[in-house]
Amino acid sequence: MRLVTFESEGLRRAGAFIEGDARIVDLAAAHQQRHGAHAPELADMLALIEGGDDALDKAMEAVKSAPETAI
Question: Which of 27-31's residues contact partners 24+ apart within 8 Å by CB, and which partners?
Fold first, then answer.
């Protein structure tokens, strides 16, 4: 999993490249759409790093189950 910071609607977001780096999954959006709950540790790259292994596990799960609307 290659992580990336990207900008959406003027905000920096944490994401992960998919499909040979052609597309980006918005980690926080994917988690929220899948679980109906906000995950502050996925909001941006600093929060993801500070969240440690638990945040990284959530990020990997978000990538695996990302709905099309979070890509």
Answer: 27/58, 27/59, 27/62, 27/63, 28/62, 29/69, 29/70, 30/62, 30/63, 30/65, 30/66, 30/67, 30/70, 30/71, 31/58, 31/61, 31/62
